[in-house]
Write a structure and sequence with these properties.
The complex is a heterodimer. Chain A is an alpha+beta fold. Chain A contains 8 helices and 11 strands. By secondary structure, chain B is mainly alpha-helical. Classes of the chains: A alpha+beta, B mainly alpha.
Chain lengths: 257, 254
């Protein structure tokens, strides 16, 4: 009996081989074919595979305010100088006394001329925006679940569902939110979510003339963000609040809050 | 025995519980119905929010077309610009959002700023700008002329090499001008190749490397004017280079 069982008939062998060989070939080629198919068909976007972040190099920022201007144009932010999704602050640290910070109209129209820079020890520009915190205080306080962290790590606002109670504006330690004067909903930077999902850069990064802003994904070696984090001494704003921001600053002074 | 006894106990529903029970069931049903009606359809799919909101955010129209879109028609301009110092500056920085222009190139034309106000947003002097970034004082720099009269923004070569280092290093020049080193030329300490003036990154100005350079004036046996503070080079902070402690553009010793 056992002898008969172990003996493979030629017919059975061919049958099995005809099933196994194409399967095996497909298995070997699978990574390649999948990539090829994805490229042809456009791969289904899986948000859990992405974790977006931004890097800001203070040394490179020239304070032209093009980012704040582009942000307003891209995202229909009201032009009045009290509403910003991103803005540029100018810090001037004197040899003695408190640091002076100004941001007239978010830096969009330029900064007023410094008449006397003799007492300034250090001076630099700091672009600010929503930090897309991993532990976002605004998400925690929203009573209706209208602000949330998307699966790809971007803090978004649900305009349909926001009741405009302003709790999130109070909770944000970075002052990154405002109440939209016409729609009466909280509004803030979305990392240009509608652009990044299409593979484009956020508008502010797109127009930065000195590449002071870098956008990419954390943990993806090919991403410009990975290079930014590897090559710079980075800090985040108000790290002691444990909000775990995803906007990283290179060359940020201790005075920057 | 005990188990048997328990099963024998007859359970009577207290009379007052029956209306209460009905009320309870009604309230729960009302709550379920209310929840069904009030909670939006996609709420809670991914978390404590409406997952539809992600799609709503995606629906926002784009204004900026992106760096590579302009190349399809304006490749000649891109090529010119990409050889110049403005190679990193996207077209839409100056020309504004161009997505509409790409949809209908003849109907919608992007801006082209031509007035003097625009270029100083980047190139006007501000001590907060990084040193070496080309900066002018608009009030002093050929007032009345449009920038494009002399400079081509797509290939911003200088009409002539800057005569002063302060054209780009004004923050340092300003500091030096009020310091004890005011009368020293930059080239007294820095070796500046001619190419540095036209293409600064290709040949950076050399910084001093030896203590002896400062010693030319500050050594106790130096051949220099009497008012200059002197130190004994052999014993004064010999482990350090002079500029480890003193800032040469604004030296603090009196």
């Amino acid at each position: 009996m056992s002898e008969k069982n172990t003996k493979i008939l030629r017919r059975d062998f061919l049958k099995a081989a005809s099933r196994l060989i194409p399967g095996g070939l497909l298995f070997i080629m699978a990574p390649g074919t999948q990539a090829l198919l994805a490229a042809v068909e456009g791969k289904e976007y899986d948000p859990s595979e992405h974790n977006y972040a931004m890097g800001v190099d203070i040394h490179k920022c020239i304070g032209c305010g093009r980012c704040a201007d582009a942000c307003k144009k891209e995202n229909d932010v009201p032009r009045e100088p009290t509403f910003f999704r991103t803005w540029v602050e100018r810090y001037a640290i004197p040899s003695e006394g408190e640091a002076r910070v100004d941001s007239p109209n978010g830096g969009i129209d330029g900064f007023p001329e410094v008449k006397d820079d003799r007492d300034i020890m250090r001076s630099f520009f700091v672009p600010k925006l929503c930090n897309h915190c991993t532990n976002a205080p605004c998400v925690q306080v929203c009573p209706v679940g209208a602000t949330f962290t998307s699966p790809d790590g971007v803090v978004l606002v649900d305009r349909e569902y926001c009741v405009g109670c302003r709790y999130c504006i109070q909770a944000c330690p970075y002052g990154a939110r405002y109440l939209h004067p016409e729609e009466h909903v909280a509004d803030k930077c979305t990392f240009c979510y509608h652009r990044i999902r299409e593979g484009l850069l956020p508008a502010c990064v797109e127009v930065c003339p000195t590449k002071a802003r870098v956008f990419g994904e954390v943990g993806q070696r090919s991403s410009p963000m990975h290079r930014f984090l590897r090559l710079n001494d980075v800090t985040v704003l108000k790290s002691w609040l444990n909000t775990k921001p995803k906007v990283y600053y290179a060359g940020a002074d201790g005075e920057v809050r | 025995m005990q188990i048997k006894k328990r099963t024998n106990i007859k359970f009577n529903v207290p009379q007052q519980l029956i209306p209460l029970g009905i009320l309870f069931i009604l309230v729960i049903t009302a709550l379920i119905v209310a929840r069904y009606l009030l909670v939006p359809p996609t709420f809670g799919e991914l978390g404590h929010y409406r997952s539809q909101a992600i799609e709503d955010n995606l629906a926002h129209p784009m204004s900026y077309a992106g760096y590579y879109s302009c190349n399809e028609c304006h490749d000649d301009m891109m090529e010119l610009k990409n050889q110049s110092n403005h190679r990193g500056v996207a077209c839409e920085v100056c020309h504004g959002p161009a997505a509409k222009h790409i949809e209908d190139p003849s109907e919608y034309l992007p801006d082209a700023p031509r007035d003097r106000g625009f270029c100083p947003l980047c190139h006007g002097y501000d001590p907060a700008r990084p040193s070496g970034f080309p900066q002018i004082i608009p009030a002093l720099h050929n007032p009345g002329h449009a920038c494009i009269f002399c400079h081509d923004p797509h290939n911003p070569l200088l009409p002539h090499a800057p005569e002063e280092c302060s054209a780009c290093h004004r923050d340092i020049a300003n500091q030096k001008a009020v310091s004890h080193h005011a009368t020293l030329d930059c080239t007294e300490c820095h070796v500046v190749a001619a190419e540095h003036l036209t293409d600064p990154r290709s040949a950076l100005a050399q910084k001093p490397v030896e203590r002896a350079l400062c010693g030319k004036c500050h050594a106790d046996d130096a051949d220099a004017s009497k008012g200059i503070p002197r130190v004994e080079m052999a014993s004064h902070g010999q482990r350090y280079l002079c500029w480890d402690c003193h800032y040469p553009h604004s030296p603090e010793a009196y």
